[in-house]
């Protein structure tokens, strides 16, 4: 078996700041990898580079044998539609707010070739149910939904096409703690059920513990520690990881 996504030697500078400073990363099929680290450590930049949204100064990104950085925009968009999913922190960035809930889900199915209206509508209703939204709300606009519901709708829209790799950028950020817990449980169940590979960016250590098989700890654009989730969180080796873990425990 080879990694689904493999990055080597990623570097990206913004003036004097090294947002990525020699990052290597592999994600294996069915693996959930969390990238944790304080604000400004380079997490979002790494996600953007891995998904081809930003070009690094150096390094390579290979997805399933394809060179992501050498791809043209059309090929990258095709990957984004068919093999990848993106869950944004703000559901507004991942949903079309002027389109019904069912339309948001159905649209993505249509982008992968589905044409039969009845089947698309039935699949959309089924996915609303799977993300614990009443299918009666199929024709409602997302802006009539709570923040937690919008995020669950974004997840349904993303997962309906069964992507092989899902990028998640702080998927529970900005939500109430009780809403976060419910959403994390839902993400965990769906990821396991569908056998997804996930790259999760978060500064929520509890979310990383619940969802991730493996954790990478970033600081100043470098991966300072990585390993299986329980090992990294229960027996952190790097002083920075120790600080991260103890500051969470003390909070
Ligand atoms: N477009 C940009 N122009 C200039 N500097 C940038 C740009 N994008 C990121 N940076 C800088 O690169 C560094 C890494 O930023 P990045 O957003 O990747 O961190 P992060 O770990 O995701 O932080 P947060 O958790 O706050 O989102 C920071 O110092 C940031 O200021």
Automatic annotation (TrEMBL):
InterPro entries: AAA+_ATPase, ABC_transporter-like_ATP-bd, ABC_transporter-like_CS, P-loop_NTPase, PhnK. The keyword ATP-binding applies. Transmembrane segments: none annotated. The keyword ATP-binding applies. It comes from the Bacteria. GO terms for molecular function: ATP binding; ATP hydrolysis activity; lyase activity. Keywords: ATP-binding, Lyase, Nucleotide-binding. Residues 5-245 form the ABC transporter domain. Pfam families: ABC_tran. CDD domains: ABC_NikE_OppD_transporters. One of its GO terms (biological process) is organic phosphonate catabolic process. This is Phosphonate C-P lyase system protein PhnK. It comes from Falsiroseomonas bella. The gene is phnK.
């Amino acid at each position: 078996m080879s990694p689904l996504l493999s990055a080597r030697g990623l570097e990206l500078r913004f003036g004097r700041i090294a947002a990525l400073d020699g990052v290597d990363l592999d994600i294996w099929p069915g693996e959930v990898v969390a990238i944790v680290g304080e604000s400004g450590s380079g997490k979002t930049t790494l996600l953007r580079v891995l998904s081809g949204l930003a070009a690094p100064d150096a390094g390579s990104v290979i997805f399933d044998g394809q060179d992501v950085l050498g791809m043209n925009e059309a090929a990258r968009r095709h990957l984004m539609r068919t093999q990848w999913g993106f869950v944004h922190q703000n559901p507004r960035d991942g949903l079309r707010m002027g389109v019904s809930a069912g339309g948001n889900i159905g649209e993505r199915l249509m982008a992968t070739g589905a044409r039969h209206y009845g089947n698309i509508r039935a699949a959309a209703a089924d996915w609303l149910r799977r993300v614990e939204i009443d299918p009666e709300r199929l024709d409602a606009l997302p802006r009539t939904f709570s923040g937690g519901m919008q995020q669950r709708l974004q997840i349904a829209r993303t997962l309906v096409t069964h992507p092989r790799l899902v990028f998640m950028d702080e998927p529970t950020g900005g939500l109430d703690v009780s809403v976060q817990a419910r959403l994390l449980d839902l993400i965990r169940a769906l990821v396991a059920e569908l056998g997804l590979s996930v790259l999760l960016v978060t500064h929520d250590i509890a979310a990383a513990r619940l969802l991730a098989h493996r954790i990478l700890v970033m600081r100043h654009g470098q991966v300072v520690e990585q390993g299986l989730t329980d090992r990294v969180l229960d027996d952190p080796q790097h002083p920075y990881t120790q600080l991260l873990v103890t500051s969470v425990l003390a909070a």
